[in-house]
Amino acid sequence: MPVPIHVVSATENHAIRFHQYHLDDMSRVRVRKICEIEDREVPQGEIGKAYEISKDTLIAVTDEELREMPLPTAKAIEIAAFVPAASIDPLQVGDGYYLQADGPVAAKPYKLLRMALERSAKVAIAKYAWSGRERLGMLRVRDDAIVLHAMRWPDEIRSPKELAPDAVEVSDDEIEGAQALIDHMTRDNLEGSEFEDHYTDALAEVIKAKRDGHAPPELPEPASPQGKVVDLMAALEASVKKARTSRGESNADVHELHPKKKATATKKTAAKKTTAKKTARKTAAKPKRSA
């Protein structure tokens, strides 16, 4: 059942953007599209698409030809399957867009699809045409809207096998300690100052200071020397302490990641050896009985 929809961006970019400029006279540096043969700037209306077969052979393809391709996804989003959300690799998921029902006629089928997705706890995998190519997409529900996430094709995801580290040994105590830290740092949502964009705020302060003729704020001294190799477990413990401090909690009971069982066992072994030596000395000091 087709559902007429509009595609609306679901995200906003609040980053501070810079322009390129000429250092000598502070004039703007712009990117212009120049025709190589006529050596002049070409307006957008004179620019088209072409596929390069060889250096001297180009095949022009018009926007109308792309729109009229014999594909069901050329003018619609076609659902191919429904799958559990957990089966989707996050690496495949890209930008998100809200799908808005296109008029009263689309309201009922739109709501029907949204409620069916919501009750099934599944996501829909769809195919659609966008920017001159067929794409894979994922449909899911957010509040009362259907969200379309652009997806990468499975063969576009590189294998991480060549990135795997060399064989290392990790003890059960270290794993349990890391799990304890994960449990302690688990949150119900991403609300809080640690999930805010402090870089943009700091950049805004730099721009404001320069506008007012003041020196930019100085960077505080780093807590640890730069370039030093930090023990992973110690870094995790420090992360927990920092998170607890930001929430006004005590750091006294942070789980120790460096087990002391081996040290205790060593002390016990050393104590046994000392006792054995003392016993041997006492035995040696006793006089031998004559027969």
Structure description:
This protein has 6 helices and 10 strands. Helix 3 runs parallel beside helix 5. The strands form 3 sheets. The protein has a 6-stranded antiparallel sheet with strand order 1-7-10-9-8-6. It has a two-stranded antiparallel sheet with strand order 2-3. The protein has a two-stranded antiparallel sheet with strand order 4-5. It starts with a strand and ends in a 6-residue tail after the last helix. Residues 257-268 and 278-291 have low confidence and may be disordered. The radius of gyration is 33 Å and the shape is extended. With 291 residues, the chain is an alpha+beta fold.
Protein traits:
6 helices; extended; 10 strands; two-stranded antiparallel sheet; 6-stranded antiparallel β-sheet; 291 residues; alpha+beta
Sheet/helix structural class: alpha+beta
The assembly state of the depicted protein chains is: single chain
User: Please, what is the average pLDDT?
Assistant: 77
Radius of gyration: 33 Å
Biggest sheet layout: 6 strands, antiparallel
Return residue spans where pLDDT drops below 50 for at least 5 consecutive residues. Answer: 257-268, 278-291
Helix content: 25-40%
Spatially, the strands of the biggest sheet line up as 1-7-10-9-8-6
How many strand segments? 10
Count of runs of 4 or more consecutive helical residues: 6
- β-strand amount: 15-25%
Distance between the termini: 111 Å
What is the 3D form? extended
SSE pattern, N- to C-terminal: EEEEEHEEHEEEHHHH
